[in-house]
Design goal:
By secondary structure, the protein is of the alpha+beta class. It has one domain (22-223): Thaumatin, CATH 2.60.110. The protein has helices spanning 5-20, 150-153, 167-171, 174-177, 187-195, and strands at residues 22-30, 36-41, 45-49, 54-60, 66-71, 75-76, 82-83, 105-109, 116-122, 131-135, 144-146, 159-160, 163-164, 211-214, 219-223. Strand 12 and strand 13 (163-164) form a beta hairpin. The termini are far apart.
């Protein structure tokens, strides 16, 4: 039996759609001793992760301004409403907005200049749990991590319940937030940089804190690696 020519066109179209619809898979794993509530915006929403759990999120090509983070000390009812001690995103389990500081951030933009993915760990919104953010495919092997005891060593003026604030969150001045578009490292931003040299410590910390992989790479984000 011969199949109509249109059948093969449909199969080819379907194959193209299914292989191109998602640029990257992000495997998010909780290795902390306690439960965390992972958040992923703009794709994914949120999910409770008990110790050892992994949540996989498929992210479309071209996604920008994306974040993955851990929320701690959460309590949600059956409808997914409640709140978290750190990283809360408007009192809902399924995040649609960024989380409240302090929270350690995995940030990324996919298929950008020269079809590169750009990714980083950011402490510009402070720190709540240690994190690893690493590629897992495509021949890209340069991962980043921030595993220091920042909460335990946090300067007194930055201490927060469940985490350590970035100075911009606390003081909201141009010196720390770069509101005018220009600023330099400070003693407080260097506290973060000294402990996590590959992470963003203040908004203009691009040179040593942004990493790239070819578009189509998959990644893992590990809390408490």
């Amino acid at each position: 039996m011969s199949l109509p020519r249109g059948f093969f066109f449909l199969v080819a179209l379907l194959f193209t759609f299914t292989t191109a619809a998602y640029a990257a898979r992000f495997d998010i794993t909780n290795r902390c001793r306690n439960t965390v509530w992972a958040a992923s915006v703009p794709v994914g929403g949120g999910r409770q992760l008990n110790p050892g759990d992994t949540w996989s999120v498929d992210v479309p090509a071209g996604t920008t301004a994306a974040r993955i983070w851990a929320r701690t000390g959460c309590n949600f009812d059956g409808s997914g409403r409640g709140g978290c001690q750190t990283g809360d995103c408007g009192g809902v389990l399924q995040c649609r907005a960024y989380g409240a500081p302090p929270n350690t951030l995995a940030e990324f933009a996919l298929n950008q200049f020269n079809n590169l993915d750009f990714f980083d760990i950011s402490l510009v919104d402070g720190f709540n749990v240690p994190m690893e953010f690493s590629p897992t495919s495509n021949g890209c092997s340069r991962g980043i991590s921030c595993t220091a005891d920042i909460n335990g060593q946090c300067p007194s003026q930055l201490k927060a319940q469940g985490g350590c604030n970035n100075p911009c969150t606390v003081f909201r001045t141009n010196e720390y937030c770069c509101n005018s578009g220009s600023c330099s490292p400070t003693a407080l931003s260097k506290f973060f940089k000294d402990r996590c040299p590959n992470a963003y410590s203040y908004p203009k910390d691009d040179q040593t804190s942004t990493f790239t992989c070819p578009g189509g790479t998959n990644y893992k984000v590990v809390f408490c690696p």
